[in-house]
Input
Amino acid sequence: FHTAPVRSLFLLRPVPILLATGGGYAGYRQYEKYRDRKLEKLGLEIPPKLASRWEVSLYKSVPTRLLSRACGRLNQVELPYWLRRPVYSLYIWTFGVNMTEAAVEDLHHYRNLSELFRRKLKPQARPVCGLHCVTSPSDGKILTFGQVKNSEVEQVKGVTYSLESFLGPRAFTEDLPFPPASSFRNQLVTREGNELYHCVIYLAPGDYHCFHSPTDWTIAHRRHFPGSLMSVNPGMARWIKELFCHNERVVLTGDWKHGFFSLTAVGATNVGSIRIHFDRELHTNSPRYSKGSYNDLSFVTHANKEGILMRKGEPLGEFNLG
Amino acid sequence: STIVLIFEAPKDFNFRLKAGQKIRFGEALGSL
Output
């Protein structure tokens, strides 16, 4: 130790420290998993382990928007004809894409990965259920659903987020004759005896990424929240409370036959851009935005008092890479 | 990416779902 040249001392020091801390952290995580399995065997409910404030801040400091835009640019590079089949076949194999449902199955048709991502389906590939009043707006996995108690919504079982942070303050098209209701939830429920319901659908990378109207309704208002583009996979939704309130999202609100109705498209790292077919003014994943801001747009005009009428199953928008 | 539906409906609205299930566009989510 005493005879080693000074340079090698500096070289040696970081390596064992990193190994020791990394090994210690990994060992602690393994112990936590072992302990949780023991508790599960005893039939005890394990509270979800949420990220601490510094872990969320650390994750939010990752330039996900920049990465997302860079990834988007890369995916818009036109591939040479001979390279399309091997590249797209790798993507299809990796994410389990079902090309037999695509309107165009020939891979050479898609000039770049972005076009393959925005592929349309054959009309008969997704018949829209006529019996039930609410149908799924997209392909995906049901993360959670149910009644909204108080003003907290579950993002996955046991992890909630604030309804008011997620939708933002109620935009009333006309002045209310009475003071707003006590809780935010009660401001949304417009009819006596009604309840507020929610459903969260996670779209995996290989899923069909267009979304459609889930019911017959009129869309009166759009609110765009610029924000982070953290991953929203189920594991992250279990780990980061208020995840959906951090991320970039587009909230469409309006009315259906039973009152208030809203659909929110939440972006993610690889899918930073959200398009709404009838909303030309919407620009998501822009380089600059001010934290906590949102942009409103009303679709109610003098000519069109109701807003935009949407039929169940009608194309509404799409997620894009980048 | 994720889609979140939040809506009001009468008390007897029922979801036809199980958490974790796969679903496809156009399939039933729920009804009265």
User: Anything to note?
Assistant: Chain B has a mean pLDDT of 95. Chain B has no helices and four strands.
